[in-house]
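Section 4.2 – Deliverable D4.2 (structural model, holo form)

The reporting period included a commitment to supply a predicted holo structure for the target in complex with pyridoxal-5'-phosphate. Inputs used:
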Amino acid sequence: MIDIAANLAAVRAQIHAACARAGRDPAEVTLVAVSKLQPVELVRAAYASGQRDFGENYAQELRDKARACADLPGLRWHAIGPLQTNKAKYVAAVADSFHALDRLEVAEELGRRRVGTPIRCFVEVNVAGESTKSGVRAEEDARRLVDAASRVAGIEVVGLMTMPPLEGEAAADVFAQVGAMAKGLGLTELSMGTTEDYELAIAHGATVVRVGRAVFGARPR
Ligand SMILES: *Cc1c(COP(=O)(O)O)cnc(C)c1O
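Output (structure tokens):
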């Protein structure tokens, strides 16, 4: 049996250590436990260990898990995967935050479907221009999307998100670029860093890290 409590404690300790090295307050960094493809029992185990923020990639899986966990007060869902407009309703209904905003149509559909507090949105940037990843490439594209999406009722643009290339050197460079871009756009939140590189991301100013395997173990196929 996987020990979720021990894994969470280890990740939280690494976050604290990375913050100490960077001279940052750990309270500035939110750990999103990425539970995609993992069973609801593991979400419940993490919740019992005090974890409140959970990330899901797939809109229907998010809808189903949110329904299965509706009895857990204070649990926040983060939709972290690319989204098609026809599935935006699932995200708008249950998510606290959406991390992969890459075009205005998705922002508009989320806003149209949202009831209550605005959904917090991160514009996804793909500065390395990797064709396998979504996101806007250039700073002017990010600016245009941030400006337009900021005028949409029902959503609130809070920051930038990125998925860097896997090689360490390139990731550091991407994190630094995205951090500078957020500053230039006047955005305070930075969603970056996974199991591979969350400590590096914290060194470069991440305020949200999205960690799956280090918390829940390898994903079932
Ligand atoms: C799966 C995923 C993560 C978590 O990745 P791990 O390697 O399991 O930590 C983070 N962000 C996004 C966008 C993902 O799709």
